[in-house]
Structures are given as structure tokens and as C-alpha cells.
Amino acid sequence: MKHLLYFLFYFAATSLSAQTNTLVILGKTNVNTFKCTNTGFNHVVDLDSKSAQSFSLAVDDFDCRNRMMTADFRKTLHADTHPKMSVKFIKLRKINTSNYYAAQIEVRLMNRAKLYDVTFFSDDRVLQGSKTVKFSDFGITPPKRMGGTIQVKDTLDLSFSLLAKS
């Protein structure tokens, strides 16, 4: 009985913690890499919906696990004047009978929108996908620090993990 209770507790804890929306932005500098994560938004993607679906994220909810880097990231994205980032699923269709979906998404940041084609995988509860984007897609100059000694690369990897329903 003790083992059963432990198993149920472990399963419930891991299931609940794994079921959150996450947008991770991975970037590189000429010295290091960085990872900024946002889990502060609610949205469930309806895999059967034929209409556009969108959600917004607060730029201030991104956390880079380093106070100075987080502040620099938010400053680069102009969180004070553009506090929201949005993602809109323009098209979402299942690829054959697999668990893969082809999507066209619009990412809107700092009043600029860019369309991307993304392939997502779904296990019927979580929709996962990634896309490489650029700061310059949104008119952002990648930041430099320490007099240009540290330069952030223009390329970023967005990684989505979104709650889904069918």
C-alpha cells in the first residue's frame, strides 16, 4: 500500500508539473548561451479548431535565471513600451494520421508581426514545436555588452510546449 501511495503521489506531481505552457527562447553570444523561459500564460490549443487561435505573453514574465541577463533581455524587447508578445495560430492542420501538425503562426513583438511555418508534435495533451527566428525579424538590433566585447547573435530558437485538446 505504501508503494502504491508513493507511486500515485509521484505520478500526480510529475503530471501536474509537466502540464504547463512554456515558451523558451534560446540564444547565443560570442561567449556563451542563454535561455529565457516564460510559463506565465494560460492557453489551451484546440487541435480540431478551424479558426485562428491566439495567446499573449507578458515580456516581464520571461526569466533567464540570472537577474542581470533577465533585465537586459526585457530591456532589449522594450518591455516598458511593448509589454506583450503574442502568438497566433493562423492555420493548424494534422499531417495525415500521425501526431504531427503543420502550423502557420504569427509572432507579434514590438508591434511587428512575422509569419512562420512550424511543425508541431502532439501527444493529445501537449503540443510541442520549435522555430528559429531572428532579432532582426522584429527590427531589434542584437545587444552588445562590455563595449562590444560580448555580442548577442541575431538568431534565436523558440521552443513551444503548449497545452492541447482535441
From TrEMBL:
<dbReference type="Pfam" id="PF04264">
    <property type="entry name" value="YceI"/>
</dbReference>
<protein>
    <submittedName>
        <fullName>YceI family protein</fullName>
    </submittedName>
</protein>
<dbReference type="InterPro" id="IPR036761">
    <property type="entry name" value="TTHA0802/YceI-like_sf"/>
</dbReference>
<keyword id="KW-0732">Signal</keyword>
<feature type="domain" description="Lipid/polyisoprenoid-binding YceI-like">
    <location>
        <begin position="32"/>
        <end position="162"/>
    </location>
</feature>
<feature type="signal peptide">
    <location>
        <begin position="1"/>
        <end position="18"/>
    </location>
</feature>
<dbReference type="InterPro" id="IPR007372">
    <property type="entry name" value="Lipid/polyisoprenoid-bd_YceI"/>
</dbReference>
